[in-house]
Amino acid sequence: MTRRDPAAFAEFVAARSASLHRTAYLLVGDRGLAQDLLQEALTKTYVAWPRLRDPGSAEAYTRKALTTTAITWYRRRSWGERPIDTVPDHAADGLADDVATRDLLWQALQSLPPRQRAAIVLRYYEDLTEAQTADVMGCAVGTVKSQVSAGLRSLRTRLGDRATDSDLVPLDLLEVTR
Amino acid sequence: MTGLLTDLMHDRADRLDGPEVDLAAITRDGDRVVRRRRTAVVGVAAASVLAVVTGAALFGGGPARDTDVVATGPIAQLDLLSWTSGRVLHTGNGATVELDADVRAWVWVGDSVVYTDPSGRVHLWQGGVEREIGTALAQGDLAELVTDGTFVAWVGADHRLVRYDVTEGTLVRAPAMPGDRLRVTAIDGAMVYAADTEGVYAWRPTELNSYQTLGTDPRAVVLDAENGTLVRTAPGRTVVLERDGDTLLVAAREFADLSPDAGLLSVEDKDRGLVVDTDSGVEVTLDHGHEWAIGYQWLDATTVAVLAFDGINEDEVMDASLLTCDALTGACAEGEHLGAVGQWQLPAGIHLAR
Q1: Which site in A168, B187, B207, B351 is 20 to 30 Å from B214, CA atoms measured?
Q2: Nearest beta carbon to residue B16 from set A22, A82, A167
Q3: What is the ipTM, given to two decimal places?
């Protein structure tokens, strides 16, 4: 991977774009935007391709590009129209409370500030350690801790008595991981 | 137990269809970035590049440019930069007007001002006299007020479109539309464009009880309309211009502003403020000298007011400036330094929050 080899890049895209797309979706909460975000992050990866020594590095680079681009998009995106992407849950009556709780949690996740949301996605979806999350976000481990803590606090507040702390995130995952 | 949060994220992510990655666009855009970096190293800047064009033909033979400046009034000099701070309206020549309430979002409508306040009241300031003309729903950071210079439209508190004729002082309400999160997106004289969760609509206020559904894809929103030219959003960081059956695709984010005669389109792509000639497809990059910029208001047929930011990738507050740029050459002149977002509002109908 020492030169910008289109075939090798295409192979990387074919292999990893579905997984990266899922992360992009969680970072921005909108299918169309996730598609755009992935496209932009892959473009950055393509530019950096000669410096990336192996597919693992390329994936890590793309994930970092997804995260930092999503965060800066929010700063830019206080301007302009935004496509709607509503994916309502439907369920039988017996499951209505559970569905409502999950919808509420999803909405609460969407409304978090971008850094808090990115930190939570990286920690609890990507299952990265705090140090790995800090590396992806380009910040200190302490910043990750504070962003995750603030984000979880907001989510708990939004859920009210619908879920306990341990329902939201298992206590073992709240322990420090480095 | 995986935890509700982790479980929810996996559940929602797993519902996604596979992505449609445009590999050709990635390599084209990536190669362009590489070329630009190399070009920058040797000190040569490309003044303009061609827009991405698809469809049968570029637009041609459009209407003649109207070089008339919009009418001026007691305070309004619409060829000047203007902004509000709290309840004070400023223009670039130093004139100020104190309005009755703090301004949340505002527009020039001819030489009158229509604005929303934090309580959702819609105010009309006209010739030094101010009165309330309705109530509007807050729209987050989307447009709350849209205007074509004669009419102004918004979504009323009853979740129905409203069009107000500033000249006649008449107000018309649209029939209810089927979805949620209705917002008005554009207006072109006799037609008001809107979108909600169920689709995209065109409403002609002369037909009180009907509206046209332009499509059920809520992503194809009409961003602007002038002289029969429509600008719609499209997937893949693209806006689509439609005129007389021809289409022009322009790489852009979610904002686009047609010049009064629809001959030019102001957009932003990859942090660059651009103006696209809708006849030829030629893009001119605005030479604004800031990290990010977008032309948000046409001051005349070829001059665009530009909002520029610095510090956009930092944790610090973004620092904003206003400029005026010549859309034909891309040359810009510094106008006003506004400072942090949230302390001022621009005549674009959008509330810019901190």
Answers
A1: B351
A2: A22
A3: 0.86
